[in-house]
Amino acid sequence: MLERVGEGGTADVYRARHPERGLCAFKVLRPGLRGDPTAVKRFLREAGYGARVRHASVVRTYDYGEADGQQYLALEWAEGEPLADFVHRSGPLAPTLVGKLVQQLADALSAAHGAGIIHRDLKPENVMYDRASETAKLLDFGIARDAQLPPEERLTRTGFFVGTLQYVAPEALSGELVDERADIYSLATIAYYLLTGRHPFSGRTQRELFQRLLTEPPLPLSRAAPRRSFAPALEGVVMRGLARDPAARQPTVAAFGTEVAAGVTTSPEAGRPGGPGLLGTFRRIVSDRG
Question: Which of 78, 86, 196, 280 has the most crowded CB, counting CB atoms within 10 A?
């Protein structure tokens, strides 16, 4: 072990030295959860699913298992910080950067879908962002689902869901069968948030937000950030990805990523370095110095 660097919902995370891979992130299930079959299952599922996906934009799983009664997971050490932290400091991102990041994440998800895995927990907190190289890496397959399971094993009860409510697809809330198109919805929500600093839906309580997700249309992209200008093509792509009906979304996550990348090139703010106008530039400069 080199040093403890953080903690997740179920595990402590260390920066460590893998005997074969070198520097890595070493996750250890917390002692209080080692006797919890559900926690152990989720932890090992994250490891197993992550090991099945090989892509440059996915944090690699090096090794996992159990030793001395402790469940562990060794992951590629990803430089940078959670994308959520970066956006919190910088504000909305330039469309060109958003297009670049969404394309990388779409490629990562395409690799996951090709391996038969639906991520189901896409959010900026589960993306590592390296500002120097402007690259994103997807992580955390803890609540992923095997798309090859029988349909009855992939259904969720109405009113119960996994993931983060602001990013979860409506079909996951209503007990419908969730497939790869749920990840398209979540990635569209991420794109929306990176462009505007807001989510497509809001609510004073979780219950209110839950109801709006199931019954109301999302706030149009242009109305979410009235001081920014987005090309109709870009807004159309993002809003299509947020369609309540999965069949109305892009056919694949790869198609969504390609369309977003194409749409940002026509955006009036495509080349701006940060958020809107002088304020966005100032935020970016301060962020870079920090």
Answer: 196
